[in-house]
Every structure is written in C-alpha cells, then in structure tokens.
Amino acid sequence: xxxxxxxxxxxxxxxxxxxxxxxxxxxxxxxxxxxxxxxxxxxxxxxxxxxxxxxxxxxxxxxxxxxxxxxxxxxxxxxxxxxxxxxxxxxxxxxxxxxxxxxxxxxxxxxxxxxxxxxxxxxxxxxxxxxxxxxxxxxxxxxxxxxxxxxxxxxxxxxxxxxxxxxxxxxxxxxxxxxxxxxxxxxxxxxxxxxxxxxxxxxxxxxxxxxxxxxxxxxxxxxxxxxxxxxxxxxxx
Length: 237
Ligand SMILES: [Zn+2]
Prior knowledge:
Blueprint: H1 2-81, H2 87-169, H3 173-184, E1 191-195, E2 198-199, H4 208-216, E3 221-222, E4 229-232
Parallel strand pairs: 1-4
Antiparallel strand pairs: 1-2, 3-4
Helix pairs in contact: 1-2
The structure holds zinc ion.
C-alpha cells in the first residue's frame, strides 16, 4: 500500500502540474494582448502630442508671415507720410499707422505666447518619446518572454500527460477507480496530505485513531469529511 500511495501522490502532483500548465496556456494570451493594448495606448498619447506640436508650429509660421506682411504695410504707410499734400490726408495716414501698429503689436504678443507654449510642448514631447523608447524596449522583452513561455507549454503539458499515463499503469485498477471517482466528483485534487490531524484538502481535523492508522499507511484511507485520499506527511513546525 505504501508503494501504491507513493505512485498516487506522484500522479496527483503530475496532474496538478498539468492543470497549472493548462491555466497558464489560457492566461498567457490574455496577458500578451493586455501588454499590446497598454503599449498601443502609450503610442497614441505620444502621437497626439506630436500632432498638437505640429499644429502649433504651423500656426507659428502663419503668424510670422502675418506679422511680416503687417510690418511691410506699416513701412509703406510711413513712407506715404512724406508724399501727402493735405493735412487731412496726413491725419488719415497717421490714424492708419496707429491701427497697423496696434495690429502688429497684438500679433507679436500672440507669437510670444505661442513660443512659450511651443517650448512647453516640445519639452513634453521629448520626455514622452524617451519614455516610449524605454516602454518599447520593456514591452518587446516581456512579450518575447511570454511568447517563448507559451511555446514551451505545449511540450511541458505533453510530458505531464505521458508521465500521468505511465504512473497510472503502476496503480491497481481498484485504487485508480477510487482516484478517478473523487476527481469526477468535482475535486481538483484527489490526494492530499495530513499533518497534525488536519486534512490539507478541507482543513478539518481527522479522528486521532484514523491519524494513527494513517501514519502506518497499511490501507488506503480517505478523509471522513471531504472524502479525498489522504496520506501522512511530516512537516516542519
Ligand atoms: Zn478532508
């Protein structure tokens, strides 16, 4: 019985490992796509700021041209001052010059505040691009690692399945049937250890007499509470 139990314990451990691999096979693609989405969102933020920056630069070029034209018009108006013949005409051009000067001054103010904004945005874009570079590197490494892990899982699962089949060959049909029965009843783990009279499957105490029998392990014993196959395992503490 001691030997049968040892194989059962190995079988349980192998099947638990297989269940872990199957869960990982499901989980890894989800984690990979979450990683992809995060990176994509990060790229979009940077792209949006770059577009803002480009729009601002374009606006600055337009305002520069505007100001240049305004200054040329102003220059021509000032030259005309020397050509006028009547006082009325002179006054009218003076008024025109005043209006043009105001307009140009407003444009200069707009350009100055635009330059401040440009400065701020350029710094921000540069910082975000650096962050994105670091993120890209991290993203590439993590994704590669996860994909490699995913690829190796199929092989690992195959090993577990073959090992389980081999182990089952060493277990008597009667005991194996009992094991399958417990599993089919919805228990993920059918073989659990007991230490200090506490079942590791249901965390309930088992009777002292049963605990004594368990330590001798001459028969197959199940937990009176959760019905799992139990074995005695010495632990520290
Ligand atoms: Zn139990």
